[in-house]
Amino acid sequence: MSVVSHLINGELVESKRTLDVTNPSTGKVIRQVADANVADVERAITAAQEAFPAWRDTPPAKRAQVMYRFKQLLEENANRLVQLVSEEHGKTPEDAMGELKRGIENVEYACGVPELLKGEYSHNVGPGIDAWSNFQPLGVVVGITPFNFPAMVPLWMYPMAIACGNTFILKPSEKDPSAAMAVAELLQEAGLPKGVMNVVHGGREAVETLLDAKAVKAISFVGSTPVAEAIYSRGSAAGKRVQALGGAKNHAVVLPDADLENAANTLMGAAYGSCGERCMAISVAVCVGDETADRLVETLLPKIAQLKVGPGTKRDLDMGPLVTAEHRDKVLGYIEDGVKAGATLVADGRDLQVPGYEEGYFVGGCLFDNVTAEMRIYQEEIFGPVLCVVRVGSLDDAMHLINDHEYGNGTCLFTRDGEAARRFTDGIEVGMVGVNVPLPVPVAYHSFGGWKRSLFGDLHAYGPDSVRFYTRRKAVSQRWPSVSEATRAEFSFPNNQS
């Protein structure tokens, strides 16, 4: 059985320990992945440290040339990368291709790094004194990424980190490591020097070693809120710059004037796409008025019944399986809990069977009505194909509901009313907001991130914030006095007023 190795200093490195990688469509182990110990991680850190001085001094234009070649290789190898995502994660090929393309957009943005790293200059800020600032890399930086976007989320991080002159260590999810590894190998093929990009696989031991290493200057993380908060606390206490993106409970508010057919169609993709395993998935539909809720549920039910569910490697499907048996059981537990709490399960996907794939981790589309704010299925992130309908009396009630929730990742409003949309976008306490756009994921030249307990740290992911996260500003003031210029001691604080 093949083993996914570490990538350290440009070489594939085996490990004494391995973990199983399962195809969630079949429930069968298809390969293994190296499980890093402390020595493996320290070897990667040393490689990144040693590669940093030369890479830091490489002109940004030359770093950008590597990114241009990398982008071309990603496009040329797209089908192979998509197959790996579908095999190990379970998402459909079309969904996997969409993920990869959004990742490539971040590489495109990193290609513009010579422009993005331009500092500021002021001539003659004082007598014969010029001042400027520039952006300099941090050193060794780390990315820890989740299972749900094995190709895209790493591409949020290391293209810009590397383009800014840092060296990088990626710790991808051990559940679906092959796509992240294949993408990293393409970066080596693009001409990146050895040691600039390293990949180590594994679990908690690998993560803790990276968190505690003095040589690591910054950590970017995407995952659940409890882990994000722990990584932020531990990394910050160790003096590192940390950006930790956590969980979500994303609401879609449906006003009575909304185009219900359009809202229902877009909600289907937002709630059930990728089997709900997205941090931007819509998991709550907040309907203003009982009539709106009744109409929405009535419109959704036949669409849910028509969902095409099957193995992730098969085309023309709407959903594949959940990523692991453990996660499937967790989602089923939430559904059972919702039923016990008194919510109305109007669409029940628990008994879904896919012929020929009976051992796969499948759950069909589920829809709860009459969900209330105290229920666990409302409060917590389910991360599965479960949509909850909450009924409220007004837009203000809907906004209070959303603003009171501990998460503030994404939200959207369906309406034809411009005034209502403006009030919503101004007053909602959420980091990413859509109007008639259910998945308001920013494009690569904006930045991605939520509010409240959906993000720990001051800077969002990718886009302009990524340049700030992976660099530090240096301000320089310089004077070259003439030979004949007389100088005297000045004891007051320098200023331009006297």
TrEMBL record:
UniProt-listed Gene3D superfamilies: Aldehyde Dehydrogenase, Chain A, domain 1 (3.40.605.10), Aldehyde Dehydrogenase, Chain A, domain 2 (3.40.309.10)
- Supply the EC number(s): 1.2.1.27
Which keywords describe this protein according to UniProt? NAD, Oxidoreductase
Kindly list the GO molecular function terms attached to this UniProt entry.
Answer: methylmalonate-semialdehyde dehydrogenase (acylating, NAD) activity
Transmembrane region positions? none
User: What residue stretches are annotated with the Aldehyde dehydrogenase domain?
Assistant: 15-476
User: Which GO terms of type biological process are on file?
Assistant: L-valine catabolic process; thymine catabolic process
Q: Which domain of life is it from?
A: Bacteria
Cross-referenced PANTHER family: MALONATE-SEMIALDEHYDE DEHYDROGENASE
The entry's protein name is methylmalonate-semialdehyde dehydrogenase (CoA acylating)
Q: What is the protein's species of origin?
A: Vreelandella sedimenti
